[in-house]
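Note on ligand handling. Small-molecule inputs were canonicalized before submission; formal charges were left as drawn, and no protonation-state enumeration was performed. Where a ligand contained multiple stereocentres, the stereochemistry in the source SMILES was retained. For nicotinamide-adenine-dinucleotide, this procedure yielded the string shown in the input block below.
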Amino acid sequence: MRVLVTGGAGFIGSHLTEELLRRGDTVAILDDFSSGKREHVPQEATLSTCSIVEPAARDAILAFKPEAVVHLAAQIDVRQSMEHPLNDTTINVLGTVNVLTAAAEAGTRHVIFASSGGTVYGDTDVIPTPEDHPNFPLSFYGAAKRSGELYGMMVAAQHNMRFTALRYGNVYGPRQDPHGEAGVVAIFCSRLFKHEPLAIHGDGKQTRDYVFVTDVVAANCSVLDSGAAGIFNIGTGLETSVNELYAVIAKRCGGPEKAAHDAAKPGEQRRSCIDIAHARKVLHWTPQVSLAEGIDATAAFFQMKHDLSHQPAH
Ligand SMILES: NC(=O)c1ccc[n+]([C@@H]2O[C@H](COP(=O)([O-])OP(=O)(O)OC[C@H]3O[C@@H](n4cnc5c(N)ncnc54)[C@H](O)[C@@H]3O)[C@@H](O)[C@H]2O)c1
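Structure output:
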């Protein structure tokens, strides 16, 4: 299949691209490298370097004529979205509309959109949260993800195209960016290996649903292969507090048993855990990697990075 991956130089996108190429798909990547890395782009993939908000993105999609588009390119930082809402909206809403309309124009049969199970529902006592739960996002990022789903369904209905929104939990794994605020597993692993100070925001009892990146890749492949349309939560259905997460990572990376705590971040969601029964049933997908296994693989990656940066120069 001809698949165009926006954000293919990023964390999830680069893992997905590798798997698609391994399966024999023909892959094009569209990325502006705002956070993605050139070394993550395999030689076998066609590359267009531009922003999804630019007309050049439409041109690239029309030129490649993808059968499927996996739309991952985004401003991914929830707190950045609160500080710079217009920037978030430009990339995550207008950029998404640009990708959707270009895909429809190019005759693309299926668009898969990376939505967010951690932010579209907002605070809720219904845990794990199913897809039909009402949406009360607490951030511009969450509202933009929900908007992307609505635009996707609308454009798909108008153009006889399939549209699937995958609402990811907190995705983690090798290559995740340990800088900034998104990606707590990468941040903890990286800081512990570098012996850098680290603090948990608030009491650490806030919970998230941590899903390993290869399970997210497998969910995307199931959607591509089955052609299933609709909205699917892609997580584990397991709730883990930041304190529990820290304990597992500290044990693996050799950090102090208890972490320091600083002030809670205002507006931070208290609990998040998503129900994956729909994906299990329709996509025949189920997460394969336990938290302990996933953290072990992620820690090994950050340990290798740390060791390489400390090798003596020859
Ligand atoms: N990582 C998670 O826990 C998580 C959870 C829910 C949803 N998501 C979504 O999954 C997708 C991928 O996230 P990720 O964790 O791999 O992040 P990432 O930052 O590693 O990847 C995003 C990629 O998009 C590119 N990009 C950003 N803005 C762009 C633009 N305007 N034009 C073209 N390319 C642009 C970046 O350079 C990067 O390569 C995003 O849509 C994100 O919102 C991620």
